Amino acid sequence: MPIIAEFVLGVAQLSQLPTDRLPEIALAGRSNVGKSSLINRVLGRDGLAHTSNTPGRTQQLNFYRVWPEGKAGPAFYLVDMPGYGHAEVSLSRRKEWGRLIDEYLSARPALRGVIHLIDMRHPPQPLDLEMSGWLRHFDHNFVVVATKADKIAKTKVAEQALQVAERLNVDSSDVLAFSAENGLGRDAVWRWMRETAAQAPEEAPQPRWRR
Ligand SMILES: Nc1nc2c(ncn2[C@@H]2O[C@H](COP(=O)(O)OP(=O)(O)O)[C@@H](O)[C@H]2O)c(=O)[nH]1
Ligand SMILES: [Mg+2]
């Protein structure tokens, strides 16, 4: 049974959030880190989420409804959050996004887990560390996905993933190397999404730092 997925809505204010209580899995990361590309690769749907070389286009929480086993089975939302760290965006605009993300992460019962994307070519940046801090502060279950693995030598992938884990102070098993280009890590990310969405909030797998 193929995965069914559809874009449902873009939310600019929390009053517009869906009310159907489906589990939600959110994606967090810098602009251009590869959030939209991950959605398309994991769901096997080129063009479902808009990818761009021009960062900062996604200014709202974009909700995608996903049925892993067809419409007779369970569904969940993937929530593409606005990317942070785009210098060309005005401070007031950044504050607006910050508030939206902050409010969503702090008070959303349907949120089961967060996928935090980090470009594995570079060490995590200050804003990445800040986001990681928020995820811990709000006590979210999260996994780190280290993106663009195809852009570094194959022999360096494991080493770079380990460095990301060390910088963010998470267990190395909580970092998944990923490439939207060649599909590396796709199955692991999909499994994490499905398992996390399927669990009751209190049963969600605990990241190592909380065990
Ligand atoms: N080589 C490579 N390029 C990627 C990968 N993921 C994203 N990109 C490219 O990075 C740019 C930004 O990707 P996008 O998914 O729009 O990032 P977003 O802003 O986080 O949603 C686009 O040009 C993508 O094609 C990847 O795994 N490998
Ligand atoms: Mg995007």
Which tags fit this structure?
globular, 7 strands, binds magnesium ion, 20% strand, alpha/beta, single chain, 211 residues, Rossmann fold, seven-stranded mixed beta sheet, binds guanosine-5'-diphosphate
The 3D shape can be described as: globular
Let me know the largest β-sheet. Answer: 7 strands, mixed
Bound molecules: guanosine-5'-diphosphate, magnesium ion
Nearest-integer average pLDDT: 90
Query: What's the order of the H and E elements?
Result: EEHEEHEHEHEH
Name of the level-1 CATH class? Alpha Beta
Q: Tell how many strands the DSSP assignment holds.
A: 7
CATH topology: Rossmann fold
Instruction: Extract low-pLDDT stretches.
Output: none
Number of domains: 1
CATH homologous superfamily title: P-loop containing nucleotide triphosphate hydrolases
Query: Structural class of the helix and strand makeup?
Result: alpha/beta
Radius of gyration: 16 Å
| Sheet with most strands: strand arrangement | 1-3-4-2-5-6-7
Distance between the termini: 35 Å
**Helical amount among residues, as a percent range?**
25-40%
Could you tell me the strand content as a percent range?
15-25%
CATH architecture annotation name: 3-Layer(aba) Sandwich
Please summarize what this structure is:
Helices cover 29% and strands 20% of the residues. It is α/β, with parallel strands linked by helices and 211 residues long. Strand 6 (142-147), helix 4 (157-168) and strand 7 (175-177) form a beta-alpha-beta unit.
